[in-house]
Structure formats: C-alpha cells, structure tokens
Design goal:
By secondary structure, the protein is of the alpha/beta class. It is built from 8 helices and 6 strands. A 6-stranded mixed sheet has the order 3-2-1-4-6-5, with helices on both faces. Strand 1, helix 3 and strand 2 form a beta-alpha-beta unit. Helix 2 packs across helix 3 and helix 3 packs across helix 8. The longest helix has 16 residues.
C-alpha cells in the first residue's frame, strides 16, 4: 500500500495535528430568500459579469456578500487559482475543504503549501463519523457498493452544516468540464444549499487555468503530472487512460456516476430526499 492510498483516518492531520481554523465570528443574519426580484437581480449581475475577469468577480462577491461569503475547495487547479486571487483581494474569506477521510496524501499536503505561500489556512471539515466508524456501520467501504450515498454522507451533509449562516459560496467549476456544468452561470441561486453560488472561472478554459498556474507558480497537486486531471477521493479516482479526452473520466470509473452531487441541480445522494 502506497502513502497515497492510506485512508486519511490513519494519517496525521494535514495541519500537523492542530485543530482546523474556525470561521470568523459574524453577527447573526437572516438567510436569503429567492424572491422573483432577487433572482432577477442575480441574473442581471451574472450577465454583467460575463465579460469580467475572475478577479473582478471575486472583488464584486466580497463587496456584495462579505462577511457572509465562503468558499469550498477540493484543491483542484481551479480552486488553487482562486485561492491565489483571494490572497490579494479578500484574504479574510472563510475557505473550507470537505475532508471525507479518503483524500490523497498529496491533496492534504497541498493545503499546507497553499497556507505557506498565501497565508490562507483552509479549514478541514470532517463528517461526524471517522472512516473506520463509517465503514463499520455499513459493514465495509460504502464507496464500493453505493458511492453516491458515500458522497452524500461525507460531503453533502458536511457542506450543508458548513454554510449555515452564510449568504454566498464560491466554487471553481468551469463550464467546459462536463455537461452538468455547461450551463453554470457566473452568479446564480443554488437551490440545493439555499445560497448564492458564484463561479469566477465558469467561462475560463483548462488552458487558461494552467497558464495562470504556470505564470504565477501557483501550487498544485502533483497528481496532475501523473495522469490525474481531476482528483477526488483515492478509492474513486484513477489516472485517465490513453485516448480518454474527458478530464473527469477517472472519477467513479466503471459506473454511471459523474458528480459527487455538490454541483448538480438535483439530488444525487441515494437517500431518497
């Protein structure tokens, strides 16, 4: 067993054993309501920002929603680029990672490299049950029999708790990544999480992302140099094969599953809700 395949529950914490940073204290605020007028405002802003740079989009998001603006990152190339921008524009933004317990060691190490370069310490938010507890509950690894439920329990549930009290969240999705993401607006209403969703890189290409990484020496996951264009949990991620053009072909290989559920319009959780 290589280091990259050791379950996270058996590894030291990425931050050297210290508890993850907590969100800044904020005064209580009422949740946003998607009234017709508010949705129209979001659509108008999204159209206006189509020609804006990612930096301009982030600056607008911070001005409009801070301190009730947050960001979730899986430390993909896009997320790392946004973190490099946040460091200059809104470094106080609360950023978190959904630490399922199944992440590659390289991903956990990248968190520390980001913190060293940009001073942004990403909070590692974990499910209530550890990996051993979760697998014992389900009589073995659930990712083998019901990966959709596993994603729901160890990612969706955690995110829903993380964004309580927030008004908006940023993601690193691009429209050219998949059919599910092709219609993603720059700014829109996320009905699943009841938040404004802002995607600063929605209309960027993979080439633009990597050019920024190269030009500015943005830290990135070394697995990308080993045939992993998209990195998720180690049990459900493989390197892409020769001839595979879909950059997410290595995720949940051999199944019809293509998304964890964070960025889909409907529930993909296997829970019946």
């Amino acid at each position: 067993m290589t280091l990259s395949t050791i379950p996270a529950a058996r590894r030291p914490l990425a931050n050297g054993g210290q508890p993850p940073p907590k969100a800044v204290d904020r005064p209580a605020v009422e949740p946003l309501e998607p009234t017709p007028a508010f949705l129209a405002e979001l659509a108008e802003q999204s159209t206006r920002l189509e020609s804006a740079t990612p930096e301009e989009i982030i600056a607008w998001a911070s001005e409009r929603y801070a301190p009730y603006l947050t960001m979730a990152t899986a430390f993909g190339p896009e997320g790392c680029v946004i973190l490099s921008m946040l460091a200059k524009i809104a470094p106080e933004t609360y950023v978190f990672n959904l630490d399922t317990g199944y992440q590659f060691q390289q991903t956990l190490d990248l968190r520390n490299r980001i913190a060293e370069k940009y001073g942004i310490e990403v909070a590692m938010l974990q499910p209530e049950l550890t990996v051993p507890e979760y697998e014992a509950l389900h009589h073995g690894p659930l990712y083998k029999t019901n990966p959709t439920q596993c994603c729901f329990d160890r990612k969706i549930r955690v995110l829903r708790q993380a964004v309580v009290g927030q008004h908006a969240w940023m993601s690193g999705i691009r429209r050219d990544q998949s059919a599910d993401r092709a219609r993603a607006p720059i700014v829109g209403w996320d009905e699943k999480f009841r938040l404004v969703k802002i995607s600063p890189l929605a209309n960027w290409t993979k080439q633009e992302v990597w050019k920024r990484i190269t030009d500015e020496a943005v830290p990135y996951n070394p697995l990308h140099d080993q045939g992993y264009p998209s990195v998720g949990c180690w049990p459900c991620t493989r390197a892409v094969l020769e001839g595979e053009t879909d950059e997410r072909a290595g995720r949940w290989s051999g199944t019809a599953k293509t998304e964890c559920g964070l960025h889909t319009l409907t529930e993909q959780d296997g829970s019946g809700i």
